[in-house]
UniProtKB/TrEMBL annotation:
<dbReference type="InterPro" id="IPR006311">
    <property type="entry name" value="TAT_signal"/>
</dbReference>
<feature type="binding site">
    <location>
        <begin position="217"/>
        <end position="220"/>
    </location>
    <ligand>
        <name>substrate</name>
    </ligand>
</feature>
<feature type="binding site">
    <location>
        <begin position="194"/>
        <end position="197"/>
    </location>
    <ligand>
        <name>substrate</name>
    </ligand>
</feature>
<dbReference type="Pfam" id="PF01112">
    <property type="entry name" value="Asparaginase_2"/>
</dbReference>
<dbReference type="GO" id="GO:0016811">
    <property type="term" value="F:hydrolase activity, acting on carbon-nitrogen (but not peptide) bonds, in linear amides"/>
</dbReference>
<keyword id="KW-0732">Signal</keyword>
<dbReference type="GO" id="GO:0005737">
    <property type="term" value="C:cytoplasm"/>
</dbReference>
<protein>
    <submittedName>
        <fullName>Glycosylasparaginase</fullName>
    </submittedName>
</protein>
<feature type="active site" description="Nucleophile">
    <location>
        <position position="166"/>
    </location>
</feature>
<feature type="site" description="Cleavage; by autolysis">
    <location>
        <begin position="165"/>
        <end position="166"/>
    </location>
</feature>
<dbReference type="InterPro" id="IPR029055">
    <property type="entry name" value="Ntn_hydrolases_N"/>
</dbReference>
<dbReference type="InterPro" id="IPR000246">
    <property type="entry name" value="Peptidase_T2"/>
</dbReference>
<dbReference type="InterPro" id="IPR019546">
    <property type="entry name" value="TAT_signal_bac_arc"/>
</dbReference>
Amino acid sequence: ATGQPVVISTWDAGLNANRGAWQVLQPGGRALDAVEAGVMVTEAEQSCCVGLGGRPDRDGRVTLDACIMDEQFNCGGVAALERIKHPISVARRVMERTPHVLLVGEGAQQFALAQGFPLEPDKLSADADKDYREWLKTSQYKPVINVENSDRRPVGPVGGKHNHDTIALLAQDARGNLSGSCTTSGMAFKMRGRVGDSPLIGSGLYVDNAVGAAAATGQGEDVIRIAGASLIVELMRQGLSPKAACKAAVERVARIKGSKARDIQVCFIALNNRGEYGAYALQKGFNYAVQTADGKNVLLDSEYLL
Ligand code: SD4
């Protein structure tokens, strides 16, 4: 136990998410409650890439992926969940109220409704609708990677809009316990039914309280390929620092992808059980937000490989 809470989360939306988490942690709350509260802020913000404001799949449906994990290997997730505002809270219910870890699609929605979550309108946000119509003109299914997000430039499949703002958030509470959360609308204009890394325990998120926690954002397929978050936790177990472990995972993706590595982005954040944190990305443009007990909540540019 460190006595010093800390929160780390992905991209610039992480700053607001960290504030949400901090409201739980500062008065001595539990890391699990903090990681849920933190990303709920982002889910409610209706941004491009998390929650119901997210870009749809290529059939025009917003399908949400999320997972959560606590300090005792309890975990839950939902994938391809539609018309529910807070997938992270449904993921937590899967963890706490079912014998399962992952519910998908219609079954996940049924469960959410049975748990009292309201069914939201079947409607794209104005921005998502505009982007979708634009995308339909070519209907080119080719995920384009967000490599310059830090200054809100290029990227994305449509009109310079970024497509990569999954929020993943890791926290340690004053008791020294770790938890993590991850939530996203996934890659814009993905195939219907496509599931990324973000709801998958071990890929998008992993927590081992005796070692540390890790989470991912970027091209989900290439995070799944290396079981990214789990790999990073195992590397920290072997003694690597959070940043070195994230870097080793990025290097593994780069090795596998060879010359195609330039076409994708993968990014990792990690937090060990001593409260040390770090991040690493394949390409320039990834940033992450860190809130520490000195009261500071800062956005940091990640180092990168290429
Ligand atoms: C996915 N990893 O669905 C997610 C996308 C992402 O920031 O991270 N966006 O593959």
